From TrEMBL:
Residues in the signal sequence: 1-19
Keyword terms of this UniProt record: Cell outer membrane, Membrane, Signal
Organism: Pelomonas cellulosilytica
Locations listed in the record: Cell outer membrane
Higher taxonomy: Bacteria, Pseudomonadati, Pseudomonadota, Betaproteobacteria, Burkholderiales
Family: Belongs to the MipA/OmpV family.
Protein name: MipA/OmpV family protein
Length: 272
């Protein structure tokens, strides 16, 4: 089997029971986008992320990665979900079914694999949802790519839809090491913004937060730097550090106790 040489930044929030909310840099090459052999990657690590989008507290989250890619394009992954990927020239595309994590108004241990905090007490529960994802990537030479990712809930449709525009650039590469810069901008529709950043009248009475109705639009920017060290043909260590910032109405939400939050993670993987 051929080793997978990238960890998708799209879907980092999905299937949170197995993957932390850390955007790992995709080291995209033509071979990796369209593998000629099937591959399996196993990994484990730890990430540091906010308790929820807008929280002023961080928590450590365990990461378990299992990613199977068949040579015909079918894949099953704790990060990417279950789906199919293909390419035509410099264009790469994938379609998958994945998951979006539950958010509650209680504090959680790291192993609970939920987002939320007692800071949201009275806001109630945002149920987990199954989502459909479509990702479209364009390679710009051997060192860069840009992508668009669309996510729409298949269950709990009131949770809303998102669109992400992003890109990555490998700033340095050697035989065993590479450093990549990864950035993205996320947009949410009216339902998404209301679900995760809005406060209804009933929630206001229960939580004490002011009533708030955000509009659809940009809600988050992410920038990270990732270092990948290849121990040999099978083992690699990926280290990521960066930050996310809430924008526009999301940043002005009464739930946003902090607009800018750090992100970091370390993952050790074995591929064959």
């Amino acid at each position: 089997m051929k080793a997978i040489a990238h960890l998708s930044s799209v879907g980092g929030l999905a299937i949170i029971a197995f993957a932390a909310m850390v955007a790992f840099p995709p080291e995209v090459t033509a071979t990796e986008l369209s593998p000629t052999e099937s591959s399996l990657t196993l990994g484990a690590g730890i990430g540091v992320v906010p308790d929820y989008l807008g929280s002023n507290k961080n928590k450590a989250v365990p990461m378990l990665l299992l990613d199977y890619q068949h040579r015909n394009g079918l894949f099953a992954s704790t990060q990417r979900g279950i789906g199919w990927a293909g390419e035509h020239g410099v264009f790469h595309y994938s379609f998958a079914v994945n998951g979006r994590a539950e958010r509650t108004d209680q504090d959680h241990r790291s192993l609970d694999f939920k987002t939320g905090s007692s800071e949201l007490l009275g806001m109630g529960r945002v149920k987990a949802s199954v989502v459909g994802q479509g990702t479209f990537t364009v390679r710009l030479g051997d060192s860069a790519s840009v992508h668009m990712a669309v996510e729409a809930p298949l269950t709990q449709r009131d949770n809303g839809r998102t669109v992400q525009f992003g890109g990555d650039y490998t700033v340095w590469r050697s035989a065993r090491n590479s450093i990549a810069l990864n950035g993205s901008l996320d947009l949410g529709d009216r339902k998404y913004m209301q679900t995760y950043f809005g406060v209804t009248q009933a929630q206001s009475l229960a939580s004490g937060y002011a009533n708030y109705t955000p509009a659809a639009g940009l809600y988050k920017a992410n920038l990270s730097l990732g270092w990948t060290h290849r121990v040999d043909t099978h083992w690699r260590v990926v280290t990521v550090a960066g930050a996310e910032r809430l924008l526009s109405d999301a940043g002005d939400s009464p739930l946003a106790r902090r607009k800018t939050a750090p992100q970091a993670g370390v993952l050790v993987s074995y591929s064959y």
